[in-house]
Write a structure and sequence with these properties.
One of its GO terms (cellular component) is neuron projection. This protein has strands spanning 3-5, 11-13, 22-29, 34-41, 46-52, 57-61, 66-69, 71-75, 79-83, 89-91, 97-99, 102-104, 109-112, 121-129, 132-143. It is an all-beta fold and 149 residues long. It has two domains: 3-41, no CATH class; 46-143, Immunoglobulin-like (Sandwich), CATH 2.60.40. The strands form five sheets. It has a five-stranded mixed beta sheet, with no helix packed on it. It has a four-stranded antiparallel beta sheet with strand order 7-13-12-11, with no helix packed on it. Strands 1-2 form a two-stranded antiparallel sheet. The N and C termini lie far apart (59 Å). The mean pLDDT is 87.
Length: 149
């Protein structure tokens, strides 16, 4: 479970979050008497801050792969999600994800292989943890060969 009381009286709390903060009371008693101590527990963390972001605008030619890098710092480590122009979501994972011509690497890089004009639009990287969120947006314009800029 989340809470474990060890034989030495230590309370072990696993996977802490901001809801675990507050006063904890420890009461010990034996045949001689009892003693109580109250400890205030603070959970320290930081809301995410994006530390590596893609350019605000990317103009590319159809067929040339696009890499969008997004990294963030936070405590605990933030979850990174990419929102695509069609509003579908890509969540970073250990093994990465594959969807059509798009690949999301565990390193939080969104790669669009062989893009075409339908891949044009706004790409949003969102970093979030229990303390907050940060985001950045990139406009990608894929120009088909033969189209004028």
């Amino acid at each position: 479970g989340k809470y474990t009381l060890l034989e030495n009286g230590t309370l072990l709390i696993r996977e802490t979050n901001i809801h675990d903060r507050g006063n904890y009371m420890c009461k010990a008693q034996n045949h001689i008497g009892d003693s109580t101590v109250v400890v205030f527990v603070t959970i320290v963390g930081h809301s995410p801050r994006i530390t590596k972001r893609p350019p605000r605008n990317i103009h590319t030619v159809a067929g040339l792969a696009i890499q969008l890098h997004c990294m963030a710092f936070g405590i605990p480590a933030p979850e990174i999600t990419w929102e695509l122009p069609n509003h579908s979501l890509f969540l970073t994972g250990i093994k990465g994800q594959l969807s059509g011509s798009k690949i999301l690497h565990p390193q939080r890089t969104l790669i669009i292989h062989n893009p075409n004009s339908s891949n044009s639009g706004i790409y949003k990287c969102v970093a979030k943890n229990q303390f907050g969120r940060d985001f950045t947006v990139t406009y990608v314009q894929v120009i088909s060969i033969g189209n004028k800029v």
